[in-house]
Amino acid sequence: MRSFLVRRLTAIPLTLLGVSVLVFLATTVLPGDVGRTILGREASDASVAALDHQLGLDQPVTVRYLRWLGRFLTGDWGDSYTLHQPVTGLVATRLENSATLAVYTFVLLLPVALTLGLAAGVRHDTLLDRLVSGLSLAFGATPEFVTGVVLLVVFAVDLKWFPASALPAPGDGPLLVLWHLTLPAVSLVVLCTGYVARHVRASTVAVVEGPYVRAARLRGTSPAKVVLRHVLRNATVPATSALGVQLQFLLGGLVVVELLFNYPGVGALLLQAAIDKDLPTLQATAMILGALYMAVVLVADLAYRLLDPRVRVAAA
Amino acid sequence: MTALTAAASARLRLRGQPAAALAALVLLLWVGAALFWPHLVPQDPALQVPAERFRSPSAAHWLGTDQFGRDVFARMLAGSRPVLTVAPLATALGVAAGAAIGLTTGTLRGWVDDIVMRVLDAAVVFPAVIAAVLFVALLGHSTVVLVLVIGAAFVPIVARSVRAATLVERERPYVEAALLRGEPRASLMLREILPNIRGTLLVEATSRLGDAIFAAATLSFLGLGQGPGSPEWGASVSENRVWLQLAPWTVLAPALAIGSLVIAVALLADVLRQRWDGR
């Protein structure tokens, strides 16, 4: 366990360093004329050159990378080219918004996926099982903006149960915030549930066929007790790795859902920065999302190891 | 594309599989639309008729009209072409490159295998959506960039599963026999192992095709597709979502088109996977 942690914790900074080179190169070499983009087509060549010099864009690439990395590590992420405010504060606010949405999604996802997977697994090869498997497959294949648009038409336009925008009015309490975030969260839940439910189902089927469950049944333990006491834990452990994979999808899905529901999260910020070629913001959001992504993978792996004694022992 | 569909339907013996048969039919319809839409549309999908804005679905306009008075049904049919151009090309690129890498490293094994697999593991760590946004936004939107970005994201996935299948085949007696009679490595890979992992390749190609349609539609929705005026489905959903209250059909038509296509491909991929796993 300890050696696993040490290995992963040393690998993560190295990978992040690689990511930083990639992000820097992508944002430095590819975008072409930044000064021209910011100032527009009518600006004179002299003023474009002056802005490039002011932004330090006329220096050699290695110098600019080291200078950028140094500033980035000390928390100085520069000012946004388009929003004219420090990127650090901007990213922090947006990150908080995205975290609210992600946690809410996860809280909805977990019970739904577990229940569906367990039900389908315990009653495998019945109509219920085929229904859950079929729907999981269909919903898991459908992009979240497609589900989101259908949800919007039904629940925001037609029934008017939920608002079309995810952004609550300033001063709204936590319940109103969640009410606004329900449709975006449900679009992500619909996308991710199927994958997790399929994993829970597969491990449930394996557990239900196992000798100790049969023994418990033969002892006359009630079916509900068998599921709660014997199946639940054994079937959910392998599903934690599936959840980890879905958390990664969630980070990507944030970009799409935040755009669809006009929600000012970090995904929407990344997209806007990429379209506007707002390099400091783009670098910071890409780095932060990359780091978060790796943290999520690490946490999922750790949870899997802590929950499963077999892996825990094998890794020691 | 059509060869893949034909191969898939031949494999399935569709009579016993109503869902798979329906999926194959939906896929065929969209492929038909992508190929022949200019002969099928009631009017030019780009034709703007200001007097006919936001008409709800009727006999004249089956799926209504949009903010410029363009026919939504015509745009939906025309929108099948960009996605069914980008997705199969990206799939072909990803599967070909991934298979080449997986087959080579799986056959050679040793240090080549170690190094290549480490690099691919590191590449998977970076979230694909973020990488795609980064590269498409900065390289400019064109079919070529979209195909390259989506195809590149598939390479590590395909390489891993092809390598795994190759490692299994590597232990079979026929490979040993080929090695003993001194067959060159290239011929061993292409003539002996490749035909025996065709099931893995077919399953990978179908699954990745579904992923590619998902990715192409999503990038188009994010404004990273072929640009304004294009009847692309993702872009249509994004452009028209402002009019959701007023004209929901302008959003629902392209959204349901995407849904039907991705679900059809996912179902076919699932049936193929079960067939080959069951062997």
TrEMBL record, chain A:
Its main location: membrane. Residues 95-300 form the ABC transmembrane type-1 domain. The keyword Zinc does not apply. One of its GO terms (biological process) is transmembrane transport. Pfam families: BPD_transp_1 (PF00528), BPD_transp_1_N (PF19300). It is found in: Cell membrane. GO terms for cellular component: plasma membrane. Keywords: Cell membrane, Membrane, Transmembrane, Transmembrane helix, Transport. It is a multi-pass membrane protein. The chain crosses the membrane at residues 101-122, 134-157, 177-197, 249-275, 281-304. InterPro entries: BPD_transp_1_N (IPR045621), MetI-like (IPR000515), MetI-like_sf (IPR035906). Belongs to the binding-protein-dependent transport system permease family. This is Peptide ABC transporter permease. It comes from Actinoplanes siamensis.
From TrEMBL, chain B:
It is found in: Cell membrane. InterPro entries: BP-dependent_transpt_permease, MetI-like, MetI-like_sf. The chain crosses the membrane at residues 19-37, 83-103, 115-138, 144-162, 246-269. Its main location: membrane. Residues 80-269 form the ABC transmembrane type-1 domain. Keywords: Cell membrane, Membrane, Transmembrane, Transmembrane helix, Transport. The keyword Transmembrane helix applies. The keyword Transmembrane applies. GO terms for cellular component: plasma membrane. GO terms for biological process: transmembrane transport. It is a multi-pass membrane protein. Coiled coil: none annotated. Belongs to the binding-protein-dependent transport system permease family. This is Peptide ABC transporter permease.
